[in-house]
Write a structure and sequence with these properties.
Elements (H helix, E strand, L loop, with lengths): L16 H5 L4 E8 L2 E6 L4 E7 L7 H15 L3 E3 L5 E5 L5 H10 L15 E2 L14 H16 L10 E4 L13 E6 L5 E2 L1 H7 L2 H6 L6 E4 L4 E4 L9 H5 L3 E2 L7 E6 L14 E8 L6 H17 L6 H8 L1 H8 L27
Parallel strand pairs: 6-7, 7-8
Antiparallel strand pairs: 1-2, 2-3, 3-5, 4-5, 8-13, 9-12, 10-11, 13-14
The structure holds iron/sulfur cluster (2 copies).
């Protein structure tokens, strides 16, 4: 394949030899112990993926550490899953137990495979993004400090459970398709500093940044104005024009969504739906969010059938019973009245002709 000067290198150049040799020949996999996935090929080859939690925002010492571990036990081969788990790809079975022992001795957590809570995928939060309503890594740390027994397999659950955090509704995490999603929401219209807008922002770009057409120019002040009726407080314009401020410690917080999944197994993929419209930001440990997420996991784990994802469970019992079992209040916010909401989005690869 011709080399280009941009984009990632061809993934085939980086496959571990055992994966390259058995490409398309893998027969099945099983999970002999939490966090260990055994893949068996029709050639008889066996590969173990050892799955470890990652803190997602990592420093170079941490990267060096996992690279050194991979060099020692599996020829340097590791990968990151879509949920930011680290997987060491072990082709020599004699190295499996020594690797597990070393990870444990170093305090790393192994788990997240199969019927478990996987690593939580999250966005940038207060560490980096300027439109973050809430923190992402801090929130995930608080949630997983409560839920890690579901990751390590100490507490069994009926199916896999994916949690995601997005620190605003632009949602660069996987919140639309996670079993439980925590999404930061602003609740106030951006405040305009006319003088600064005139000096620092491009008016046409700022107007064009609004997905609902709520912004129009204010030529008198060389600024803009916002139609509050149309504004959905997404914060897009504040990214384009820093002179608009949307951060509001009193009114910012998070919403919780449930029932999404990417998987096409048994049932079609599902979008997440609103469960809790608003919980006020309460850093550094967000106890209200943590309690709610834990409660949702416990109610689902108790009532779901074997293999039933959160969304499938809700589909079976119905939303009325979901609110009854969880004790969450049903409010007018749960009614989808968005004008352009379409029931006809094709969200599945299961087609019928
Ligand atoms: S979800 Fe929003 S605030 Fe968070 S990193 Fe993405 S764009 Fe920034
Ligand atoms: S916050 Fe979003 S909806 Fe509101 S004016 Fe800005 S871009 Fe438009």
């Amino acid at each position: 394949m011709a080399r280009t000067d941009f984009g990632p290198p061809d993934y085939r150049e980086m496959l571990p030899p055992i994966v390259a040799e058995n490409y398309g020949k893998w027969l099945y996999h099983e999970i002999p112990q939490p966090g260990v996935i055994k893949h068996v090929s029709e050639t008889g080859a066996v590969l173990y993926s050892v799955r470890m939690a990652s803190p997602r925002l990592v420093n170079s010492d941490w990267v060096r550490e996992i690279c050194d571990i991979a060099e020692k036990y599996c020829g340097g081969y590791l990968r990151f899953t879509t949920r930011h788990n680290v997987e060491f790809l072990v082709s020599d079975p004699s190295q499996l137990q020594p690797l597990l022992d070393e990870l444990k001795a170093r305090g790393h957590m192994i788990g997240g495979a199969g019927h478990a809570i996987s690593n939580v995928v999250h966005t940038q939060g207060w560490v980096h993004c300027k439109s973050a309503v809430t923190d992402a890594s801090g929130l995930v740390k608080s949630v997983m400090d409560e839920l890690h027994p579901y990751f390590s397999g100490k507490i069994k659950i009926p199916a896999r459970l994916r949690i995601a955090v997005a620190c605003c509704v632009n949602m660069c995490g996987a919140c639309h398709c996670s079993d439980i999603a925590i999404v930061g929401i602003h609740r106030t219209v951006p405040r305009i500093n006319d003088e600064l807008v005139a000096k620092t922002c491009e008016i046409p770009t700022t107007v064009a940044s609004c997905p609902t057409g709520a912004i129009r120019p204010n030529p008198k002040l060389k600024s803009i104005e916002i139609n509050a009726e149309k504004c959905m407080m997404c914060g897009n314009c504040t990214v384009v024009c820093p002179a608009l401020k949307i951060m509001d410690p009193e009114n910012d917080g998070v919403s919780i969504w449930v029932g999404g999944k990417v998987s096409n197994a048994r049932t079609a993929p599902m979008f997440s739906r609103l469960a809790v419209p608003f919980i006020k930001n309460n850093p550094p440990r967000w106890p209200e969010v943590t309690d709610t997420v834990k409660h949702l996991v416990e109610v689902w784990a108790k009532d779901a059938k074997y293999g039933e994802r959160m969304g499938e469970w809700i589909e079976r019992i119905g939303w009325e019973r979901f609110f009854k079992l969880t004790g969450l209040p049903f409010t007018e916010k749960h009614i989808d009245s968005f004008t352009h909401a379409t029931q006809t989005f094709r969200s599945t690869t299961q087609f019928r002709f």
